[in-house]
């Protein structure tokens, strides 16, 4: 069979029936196109009796742009395989993949609709009690078990090869590390922030550190990353957390995933300074976000350390002093990449609702300025910030 886009509800329903056992043969099914993302088509198929599933189809181009922005359909294979690999170690934290169809470039997966988009939850200042622990565990397990600290040398290299993802990596290479550091036509800059952006383009110390982070992103095949771990790729409620959409997955530096999600905590932190609502409630929520960052890092660090002590078989990587040094490097990398996420979401192409929901441009610029300062500080000072407590104190000092 060759590729074709689903053209009707009937086609989507037939595909859902063929590839999952969850619907009875007499059930009447209906389809909604629910994709609110930019890149792919996402459908929910439901029977009205509480059973449903999700179908995600990748076209050979970006959905909201069209054929003028071609994009490799191999991304959907990569997404299916990354979800399956994550499912081996943290099955409760990702949707189950029921089926992947290589010809139709489509995944059939579990509907995680009882969870809410984390970005919306953070903007609404919801306190999700298990979120930070779940994210720390997701990061420790997906990243450790796909690294040389765990895998046999041949298996690791075979995986690196099968997750080569040049089209999607190129998007990150440009949007994270090129555009925000020059006057690029893809950038979107709030008018009152223009002078701050121009100052950043002339900041050679910052640009040197960003070059080092980019070189690592290009060259360091350390573990299988999610690759796009922003708060819109996380769905959560009071009891559960689900990570979706790993189409940018590839073998890269661990700190990129950890830093992406920490950067999204801080984007919301900066947004809360000027989002609507009671000032003391917003300040309390900022503290909740910082506590969450501490818990996330602590969970990640202790679990990763425990995996290194118990599951690393390579004798050359077993020294306890090596674990200390290695986790110190991971913190520095994570802070650096968190900084690049803060900056690229503020003056680059893809902004976030945590800022965009601040309607007054001058007020929004205040939050954006804080995001730029936080980003710069994390990048430039990443080797000096000794632990997450020091990071949090630094963030508080900058926020004033
Ligand atoms: N397994 C799922 N269960 C429930 N809803 C889902 C599921 N997967 C995706 N969705 C919904 O579809 C939306 C788009 O999904 P996803 O982010 O995977 O698509 P995308 O086109 O890759 O988006 P992006 O432009 O962010 O890359 C999600 O925000 C979510 O609302
Ligand atoms: Mg996506």
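Sequence proposed for the structure above (400 residues):
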């Amino acid at each position: 069979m060759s590729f074709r886009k689903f053209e009707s509800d009937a086609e989507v329903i037939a595909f859902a029936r063929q590839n999952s056992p969850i619907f009875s043969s007499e059930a009447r099914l209906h389809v909604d196109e629910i994709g609110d993302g930019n890149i792919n088509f996402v459908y929910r198929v439901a029977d009205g009796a509480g059973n449903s599933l999700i179908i995600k189809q990748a076209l050979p181009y970006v959905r909201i742009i069209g054929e003028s922005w071609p994009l490799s359909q191999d991304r959907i294979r990569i997404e299916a395989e990354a979800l399956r690999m994550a499912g081996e170690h943290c099955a409760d934290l990702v949707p189950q993949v029921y089926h992947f169809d290589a010809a139709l470039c489509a995944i059939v997966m579990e509907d995680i609709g009882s969870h809410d988009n984390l970005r919306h939850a953070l903007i609404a200042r919801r306190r999700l009690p298990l979120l930070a622990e779940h994210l720390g565990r997701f990061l420790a397990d997906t990243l450790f078990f796909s690294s040389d600290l765990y895998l046999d040398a041949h298996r690791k290299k075979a995986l690196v090869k099968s997750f080569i993802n040049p089209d999607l990596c190129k998007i990150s290479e440009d949007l994270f590390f090129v555009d925000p550091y020059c006057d690029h036509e893809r950038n979107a800059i709030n008018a009152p922030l223009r002078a701050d952006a121009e100052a950043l383009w002339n900041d050679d110390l910052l640009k040197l550190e960003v070059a080092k982070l980019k070189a690592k992103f290009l060259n360091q095949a350390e573990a299988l990353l999610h690759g796009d771990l922003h708060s819109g790729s996380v769905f959560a409620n009071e009891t559960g957390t689900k990570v979706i959409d790993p189409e940018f997955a590839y073998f890269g530096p661990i700190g990129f995933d950890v830093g992406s999600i920490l950067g999204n905590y801080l984007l919301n932190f900066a947004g809360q300074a000027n989002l609507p609502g009671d000032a003391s409630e917003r300040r309390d929520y900022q503290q909740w976000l910082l506590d969450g960052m501490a818990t996330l890092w602590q969970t990640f660090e202790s679990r990763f350390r425990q995996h290194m002590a118990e599951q690393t078989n390579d004798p050359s990587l077993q020294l306890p002093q090596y674990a200390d040094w290695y986790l110190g490097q991971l913190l520095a990398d994570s802070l650096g990449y968190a900084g690049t996420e803060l900056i690229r979401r503020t003056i680059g192409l893809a902004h976030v609702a945590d800022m965009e929901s601040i309607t007054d441009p001058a007020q929004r610029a205040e939050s954006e300025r804080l995001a730029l300062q936080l980003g710069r500080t994390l990048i430039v000072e990443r080797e000096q910030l000794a632990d997450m407590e020091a990071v949090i104190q630094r963030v508080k000092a900058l926020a004033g």
